[in-house]
Each structure stands twice: as C-alpha cells, then as structure tokens.
Amino acid sequence: MKPSLFTSLLPLATIALVACSPVAPPAEPIRAVRALTLATSSVGGEHEYAAEVRARTESRLGFRVGGKLLSRSANLGDSVRAGQALAQLDPGDLKLSQEAAQAALGAAKASYEFSEAEFKRFKELKDQGFISGWELERRETALTAARAQFEQARAQAGVQGNQTRYATLAAEASGVITGVDADPGTVVAAGASVVRLAHDGPRDVVFNVPEDRVAELRSLAGKTGALKVHVWNDDQTPISATVREVAAAADPATRTFVVKADVGRANVRLGQTASVKIEMPRVAGQIKLPLTAVFEVKGAPAVWVVDRASMTVKQQPVRVAGAEGNDVVLAGGLAAGDTVVVAGVHVLSPGQKVRLYAERLSTAANEAVVAR
C-alpha cells in the first residue's frame, strides 16, 4: 500500500473506532429535596367526628296479621300519641274468621253442657244400681273430652278476636314518625314494617369511627361528659355526652364502627347534624412526620433518610402508630435528629446524591423583608 493512500484512510478508521466505542451514561443529577430534621413533640389533642341526632328508641311498627292496607293516617314527620291509630287493614276476612270461631265455641259449649247433664243423670242411676261403674266411667270420659273441646274453642275464639283488633295499627308510645314503608293498597305480611316511630325521650348522637379509634372510645364508655357535642347552625354551648354503646363489629360497607353517645333530653332535633369532639390526653416524646414523607415498599411503610456526611439517601422502614391531622405518628424506626425527605420521595433511589432545597425569596419579597 502506498504511503499516501494509508495516510488518507487513517482518519476514516479512527472515526469508525470512535463510533463503535460505548457511550458513557450521563451522570445522575443531584436532586434538590425538601428535608426535615426530626424532633420529639407531644401527640394527642382533639378528634372530631360528624354525627347525627337520633332517638334513643326507634321502632318499626307493623301489623301482627297479614292483609291489605286499607288506610294510613300517619305521615312522615307527624307527631303521634300513645294508642293513636296509625293505619288500618281490611278487616273483612278477619271478621269472618272471628264469626266462625264464635260458632265453633257455641257448638263446643252446647256439647259440653249436654255431656255434663248426661253425666249427672248416669251418676244418679249408678247410685241406684241401675248401671255399672264401667258405664259411668265412660260417661265421665266423654264429659272430660267435651270440656277440653269447649276450652279449646274458647281459646281459639279469643285468638280470632285479638286478630280482628290487630287490623288497627296503634302507636305504642308517643313520638314522631320518621319513616313510612307501606302505602294504602299494599298487601303486607305479618310483622312487615309500615311506619317507623322515634319515641319521645332521651336522644343519642350517632357517629362512626375507624378501627384504630375503637379502643379509645370503649375506654370512655360510661364516663359522664367525656364527649362534647356541637350542633350545627346553633350557637348554644357544647352539650356534654356520654358514650353509651360501641358496635361490636364493623359496618360491612364502610368498615367503621358505630358509636352511640347519650345527650339525655338536650334541646336538639331529630336528624340534626352535629360534631362530636373528643379531648385525648397528650403524650410527650413522640415523633411525627408529614404524610408526604412516607411511601410504601413491599407493603410496609418507609422513608428516605439523608446521610449528612455523604449527602445520599437510604430507605428506612418505619412503624406507624397513627395519624394526627396531616402528620403521621411513628411507633419506631427513626430517632430525633434524623433528617428525612418530606417531598419528592417518588423520584429518589437508594444511594442517590441529593442537596437540601433552599427556598429563595423573590426580589420583591427581599425588598419587603429589608423594608421591615
């Protein structure tokens, strides 16, 4: 090969070798992160729940017999008195059954009276020696059977009489109609709800709490004034309430537990909305983090801890004890003095270089600070 040709091909070979060599990956950027140096603080304060005022006792009233609903005089929101008629069934069939029972009672009574008179006559014949003892015993057995049939017919007639009276639905206590479940013309079964009655008397505030608060509410059960109730759209002073009942199982839809608190005969209206506030004792020496600092790794909570010496981050598993507002209360995993990333946790990776974000004031803000 001539030297001139070799000289001309050398740059091309150099370019080809450079093109085939691997390109070094770009250096990972140093991300600016918001961080917080942890310190201990007290945890507790006040928990607030939305609640509703309800009657202590609310009954679903229905007929004790089935039939066609002829009329209903009670409507939603009506105040009723104890014993007041609320609805009426068609009594036609019930009256016929009562008449049949009365007829059967009359027949049983006549048979019993005949057997009783016959037994007296045969007893006299036995005393005079005209009949044997066995015949008298047979007449006595017939009298016993007739008496039993008479008592059965009398009881059946009483049942039918009661069922005829059951055609009228009456209020069992004074109160307010809070629901209507059947309208005239409906054929209702025995026991089916027709109206709902909230009894006059003590009132409850009913609210739901998450599972992690159930133990706290149960510990307050029976303690007078442990809760404070603020009725909405009302400037009156808070009402003291006492936890009366905590559900044993969670609601299948909301997975929360129903709590009923007694407010006695406070001046509140049924269905009124209220807020229940619970003062919890404050516990010192606890560590709190913003919610934005916690993420999930393999189903467990973790945070990014900043190593001040190397300015890198590492994952640190933590144990969460609960929440307070927008903060997470930790049960373990971190100590006071640790520096934790509180924003941008989703873009970090283990060992990544970071720098602490310093928020700069704008020129106008600087001027305002200087002017002060």
Q: What sort of overall outline do the alpha carbons produce when their principal axes are compared?
A: elongated
Number of helices: 5
The strands making up the biggest β-sheet line up spatially as: 2-11-14-13-12-15
- Topology pattern, helix = H, strand = E: HEEEEEEHHEEEEEHEEEEEEEEEEEH
Protein structure class: alpha+beta
Query: What can be said about the biggest beta sheet?
Result: 6 strands, antiparallel, barrel
Q: Over all CA atoms, what is the radius of gyration?
A: 43 Å
CATH architecture of the domain at 47-56 and 201-283: Beta Barrel
**CATH class identity of the domain at 47-56 and 201-283:** Mainly Beta
Number of strands: 22
Residue ranges: pLDDT <50 for 5 or more in a row?
360-372
- The helical percent reads 25-40%
The separation of the N and C termini measures: 83 Å
Structural write-up:
By secondary structure, the chain is α+β, with helices and mostly antiparallel strands. Among the domains are: 31-38 and 294-356, conserved putative lor/sdh protein from methanococcus maripaludis s2 fold (Beta Barrel), CATH 2.40.420; 47-56 and 201-283, Efflux pump adaptor protein, beta barrel domain (Elongation Factor Tu (Ef-tu), domain 3, Beta Barrel), CATH 2.40.30.170; 91-166, Helix hairpin bin (Helix Hairpins), CATH 1.10.287. The chain has five helices and 22 strands. The chain has helices spanning 3-20, 92-128, 133-165, 214-219, 363-371; strands at 31-37, 40-55, 58-61, 67-72, 79-80, 85-89, 168-170, 175-180, 187-188, 195-199, 203-209, 227-231, 239-246, 257-264, 273-290, 295-297, 300-307, 312-317, 319-324, 327-332, 339-343, 354-356. The strands form five sheets. The chain has a six-stranded antiparallel beta barrel with strand order 2-11-14-13-12-15. The protein is elongated.
